[in-house]
Write a structure and sequence with these properties.
Layout lengths: L1 E4 L18 E4 L3 E4 L8 H10 L5 E4 L11
Antiparallel strand pairs: 1-4, 2-3
Amino acid sequence: MRIVVDLNKCQGYAQCVPLAPQVLRLLGDEALTYDPNPDDEQRHRVLRAAAACPVQAILVETHTPDDAEPTT
């Protein structure tokens, strides 16, 4: 799994942070930092966090077996 946060789109609402605190963190009051390659055990949390983003700034790419194309 790979995530990308569009930091130009992110408004710092931080609704995602409590849903995936090991992956998404606030630095200061509104600067979001994140792990772009979280463990698969974080998948459910990351998907919920991405869905909770009011501006849809979080893109989650999940990968299938090596011979298939990645899905979004």
